């Protein structure tokens, strides 16, 4: 079994080689230890020191190690205040802007969507909190994640009650059907989301998007050079006047010109100024 001191030392050695940063993994490191312990058993290696040598001798193992470092923690309506702001201010403003431009759909991208909880929450908030004010405007959500297993879970769209307990009760009752010991999302909510297996470090769906959510991913786990690259990509995909939402405790490595906080204390919400017509 991996001890914490040797596990910390190993992560501080390997994470920079993967473009990742140790501070983001402090609280979740034991999840990675469990995965590493299973891999050590498979390889019949007695510890992390020989595994380091194994990595150096087998370059293909790094891709597997990268997979061990994926953290897919999510639930519906995670960080309630963000979705309340989305319903109260952001969606109405984006809807107004989209109609002014003659758009027929509000385009959203959920990057690092895990099991689909975030993009489906976006759909639920739109349908029950905003859509009645914009009957001529559809919602089109693209959701991406590097993990094919996560995308399969998202497309199945069935969840344990604990995953949806933070949703307002009336929305939960309207959006889900009880199937055994799970709650399964109804088809009309699922239809608005297209899922894709895609690594944001390498590629992204084509923009522009009115709304991009990249929460608790790039700006928690990636190192600063990679954060800067991802931020440039997100900014490029964001429509003028569009909104970028990151994790409420995350910080951008720098702020591109034309990207401003939505409002003071707005929990990691930024807006690309409407006059910035590059996006």
Any overview of this molecule?
By secondary structure, the protein is of the alpha/beta class. 43% of the residues lie in helices and 19% in strands. The strands form two sheets. Strands 6-2-1-7-8-10-9 form a seven-stranded mixed beta sheet. It has a three-stranded antiparallel beta sheet with strand order 3-5-4. A hairpin with a 2-residue loop joins strand 4 and strand 5 (182-185). Helix 5 (80-100) crosses helix 6. The longest helix has 21 residues, at 80-100.
Task: Summarize the model shown.
The chain is of the alpha/beta class.
The geometry reads as: globular
Average pLDDT metric:
95
Number of strands: 10
Q: How large is the count of helical segments?
A: 12
User: Assembly state here?
Assistant: single chain
Question: How many angstroms does the end-to-end distance come to?
Answer: 50 Å
Structural class: alpha/beta
Low-confidence stretches: none
Q: Specify Rg, calculated over alpha carbons.
A: 20 Å
Work out the strand percent.
15-25%
Profile the largest sheet: 7 strands, mixed
H/E topology pattern:
HHHHHEHEHEHHEEHEEHHEEE
Helical content (DSSP H or I, runs of 4+):
40-55%
In the sheet with the most strands, the strands line up as 6-2-1-7-8-10-9
């Amino acid at each position: 079994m991996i001890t914490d001191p040797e596990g910390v030392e190993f992560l501080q050695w390997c994470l920079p080689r993967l473009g990742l940063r140790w501070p983001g993994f402090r609280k979740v490191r034991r999840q990675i230890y469990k995965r590493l312990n299973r891999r050590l058993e498979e390889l019949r290696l007695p510890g992390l020191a020989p595994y380091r040598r194994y990595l150096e001798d087998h370059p293909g193992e790094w891709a597997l190690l990268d997979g061990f470092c994926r953290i897919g923690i999510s639930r519906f309506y995670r960080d309630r205040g963000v979705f309340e702001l989305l319903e109260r201010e952001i969606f109405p403003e984006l809807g107004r802007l989209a109609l002014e431009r003659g758009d027929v759909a509000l385009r959203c991208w959920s990057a690092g969507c895990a099991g689909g909880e975030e993009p489906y929450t976006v759909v639920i908030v739109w349908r029950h909190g905003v859509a009645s004010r914009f009957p001529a405007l559809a919602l089109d959500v693209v959701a991406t994640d590097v993990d094919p297993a996560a995308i399969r879970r998202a497309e199945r769209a069935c969840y344990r009650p604990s995953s949806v307990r933070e949703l307002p009760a009336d929305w939960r009752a309207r959006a889900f059907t009880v199937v055994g010991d799970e709650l399964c999302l109804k088809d009309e909510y699922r239809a608005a989301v297209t899922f894709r297996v895609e690594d944001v470090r390498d590629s992204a769906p084509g923009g522009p998007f009115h709304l991009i959510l990249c929460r608790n991913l790039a700006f928690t786990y990636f190192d600063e050079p990679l954060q800067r690259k991802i931020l440039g990509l997100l900014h490029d995909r964001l429509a003028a006047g569009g909104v970028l939402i990151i994790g409420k405790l995350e910080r951008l490595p720098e702020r591109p010109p034309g990207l401003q906080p939505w409002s003071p204390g707005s929990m990691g919400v930024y807006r690309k100024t409407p006059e910035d017509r590059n996006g």
